[in-house]
Amino acid sequence: MKHPRTTQRRGRWLLACAAIVSATLAIQTIATGVPTASSPDPGSPFKHVFVVMVENTNWSSVKGSSSYPYVNGTLLPNYAHTENYFTHNHPSLPNYITLEAGDNLGLTSGAYLPADHPVTADHLTTQLNIAGVSWKYYAENLPGNGTICNTSDPGTPYSQDHNSFTYFTDVKDNAPYCIAHERPFPELLGDPSSIPQYSFIVPNDYNQGEKSNSSCTACQADTFLKNTVPAIQATAAYADGGLILVLWDEAGSSANPDTTPSGLIAVSALSKPGYASTLTYSHGSTVRSLQEIFGVGPFLGSAGSATDLSDLFTQPLVGSLPTPPVAAFTATPPSGVAPLSVDFADTSTGAPTWWAWDFGDGSTSTVQSPTHMYAAAGTYLVRLTASNLGGPTTATSTVTVSPPVVPLPLASFIATPLSGVAPLRVDFADTSTGDPTSWVWDFGDGGTATAQSPTHTYGAAGSYVVRLSATNPGGTTTATTTVTVSPAISSTVVDRVNAGGALIAGGWTADTKAVPSNWVNNAVAKTSNASTTSQINVTDPSIPVGTPMSIFQTGRFDRATGTDMVWTLPVPSAGRYTVRLYFAETYWSARGKRVFSVKINGVSVLTSFDIVAAAGAPKKGIVRTFTVDTSGPILVTFGRTAIDNPLVNGIEVLTS
What we know:
656 residues, alpha+beta, 4 domains, 8-stranded mixed β-sheet, 5-stranded mixed β-sheet, 12 helices
């Protein structure tokens, strides 16, 4: 069940504001023994605080028990104690974490170790260090005896879950700092001159009353207190505003920590003698009181709403609390284009000591006057919470970030060729500047494309206005050019031969193995036939419409055992003729496997010709077309190279 909280006699921070500040406070890198900031003196009468931990006992089993003669005979008659101190946690680890951070931070199992469950939240001793307040954790039977930063649990009589400090990464990951503050218990009284302002004292498992090596477990804890409390009281540190808090970390292990109280005794010259406070307390009360005494903040976790321990003393824990500051700031510039760097300058009055910024984009800071970069456009509500021990106040302002200005692209392109005879294939190459991200082509004949650099074939004669629209986030621009397509020139077939294959309708003469064509010098070139049943890709625009696939499924090749393969193609008269050579590679599947040259009437027309490279793939047809002026037969000579044998699948001669 929840326990009611009493209203403090002094002004308190609003819980919500304290939570905002605490949630955004960054853990600061700590140099051993070197404070990084200071807080104003809160005017507390307590200058040295000692917390002495006792274990696992219901308060009803302590008060009046004969097993605690020192507690009942000396401490309770002379000093104030609580009757309703509820820890709200079991087992030990979440209690010790709460005494350091105001919350158990999800560490609910005593089996957790620092290496497996580190935490990065803000915590009390980091606040003390930043404020220049000295502190140490003193433990009996400390592994390594102060020579290492211990994060392991060797077992009884030392319990790692009683050492909350090494679960926090700013302590655990800074070995020199950890070693300087994690000390063996004998040093506390062995060198009284080095006693810090805050001492957290943990006896071993036996002296805490958690485990027994005698017939009376509670008696061992009472004896430890009897030996330790007077020894602390005899030090100069205690004489200088000393306060000893004897604290049972939790009620008995079988008790409900929400309904069964444990105990706290406040040993001090300012403690009300024999007083039993019936107010409701928790570990948050202890944390809040320590923060008030040492003037550090913001309040941690449950400390923000807890009742402090003032009722146990004859005078307040602190002097007059300061007036809360008045938060204010400037943002320079308050608006601009993304990415926008904004300098925030704190102009708060009233001596704030802590700052928490919320930049409105999910980012935060605790620097007094930070700089923040806004990456995206938007309107951001910025909040500064400025605080001191008197409380927080908040100021807000708006930063407006506009989208970046993107220059328009400049559309341009090249069309190759710009004119020709139908059907005309034209390659369009985008040359736009300004980083366009999309392209829309209108080829003027009803055809369109969105590729950056497409190819288009015009089937009919005409004059076509081609438009390219290039777009980026800044907008769209358009470029145009004109492609002129002339009517197809009528031509007459003079010669057609299906090289290496049978007669095909449409005037394709045969060239079989049994009966080679009369036009090839087979007898001296010693050529051979090739054939395949594989499907051939005949979509290349160089292939005339209506060309049968079978043209590419047979071929004649030079076996390199005789002279070069030469085709002698008759023509009816002197004049200009068009020669088409048909190719498809059906034997090799890679480039560079068949390379040869071709001459027509002694003129080189193909040099180092690779069918796969030219077609773009094996088993894909391609046609190469040439214009020849001749007064006699047309001689097509296939020249060998060192890479396999020349091949042709079909030859066609037409009038031009």
